[in-house]
Amino acid sequence: MNHSDLPIPAHGTSARTAVSGVIERVIAEVPAPRVEPSDDPGTAADAVARSAAREAAMLSGSLALPPGPLGMLTVLPDLYLIWKIQRQMVADIFALHGRTAELTTTHMLYCLFRHMASHVLRDVAVRAGERAIVRQLSSTALTNVIGNLGVTLTQRVVGTSASRWIPLVGAAAVGAYAYWDTLQVAKTARRVLASVSDPAIVSVDAVSGSSAAG
To answer: What ranges in 28-138 are assigned the alpha helix state H?
Structure first.
C-alpha cells in the first residue's frame, strides 16, 4: 500500500466528512475475487472469514500501538485498511458461492456496515423472514446513505478512540474489535447469499427518498 493512498483529511475537514469520504472510497470499487467457486462454500467461507479477521486484528492492533495524539492520527488509515480487507473478504465469499456477478456497490455497502448501522441501512434490503434481498440504490440514494453512515460511524469512532491513549492494552482492545467486526461482516454477507438461490435485485429509483431517509 502506497502511503499516498491512505486517507488524510484536509485541514478543516469535519470528522463526519472525512469518514464519509473513506466509506465512499472503499465501496467505489468491487475487487476481483481471489478464489474460485467451491464445492463446499460454507466451510471455505469460514476459513476466508477467519483469515480476514486475523489480518484485520493484526493490522488494527499494530496501528493502535502509538499512544496519544500519534495514535489518533492512525484512525482514518485504520478504518480504510480494515474496510479494504473486509471488502476483499466479501468479494471472496460471493465468489466461493459462484455469485460474483451479483455483487454490487450496494451489496458491499450493506455487508460492510449493516451490523454497525442497521437503522441507516434498514431500507436498503427487502426483508423476508431471515432473508435479505438487497436493493440496487440510485446514485442519489447511495450518496445520502453514505452521508448518514458518516454521521453514525463518526460517533462510534469517537466513542472508541479513547483506547488508543492506553499503550498495549488499548492496541489489544482495538485488534480484538477488528477481529469481531470482520466476522460480523462475513455473517452479513452469508445471510445475503442465503436469501435465495438467484436473488432479485430491485431498483429503488422510485423509492430512493425512503432509502435516503434511513
So the answer is: 41-63, 68-72, 75-96, 105-113
